[in-house]
Design a protein that fits this description.
It catalyses: a quinone + NADH + 5 H(+)(in) = a quinol + NAD(+) + 4 H(+)(out). This protein is mostly helical. The chain has six helices and no strands.
Length: 173
Amino acid sequence: MSISGEFIAFIGLALAAIAGGVLMLNLTKVVHMVVALVFTFISIAGIYVMLSAEFVAFVQILIYSGAITIIMLFGIMLTRHNDETETAGLTRKILIGLGVLGFAGLMYFGVYNLDLGSGAADLHVDNTEKIGLAIYAKYVIPFELTSVLLLVALVGAIILAKRDDVEEEATKE
């Protein structure tokens, strides 16, 4: 294995994605967790750029870092929840750490010893055009149904939050 600039960039982006995921699991405030999740999404988008998948990286930033994060924030802000934090004991933290290290080791050796054969040399050529043609020619109905489903979920969350406010005001009187 040779160390190149691409390898260093990949390691940096992978460590940033892992750090964002670990921060998301360890932070106590929900809004901070969402920010850590955005950090992870942007790091993964960087990995997609390195793989010559610019369209997927753009969608990763636009949809996941933007839209899904906003929907999560709306869901958090519009619902009531008890802010009770649960602390894990030292034994539990050690077991979780050992599990994560074991999984990381297995994944490293599995990927390092993996032989995929020769890859396509022109895979990245016009990939955005090919994806656009596939989405808007073959899959336009599922694409639009997904956007309607997300809109219905957001409106439903607002209605449920408003209903809770009305019921709470009625019980106070």
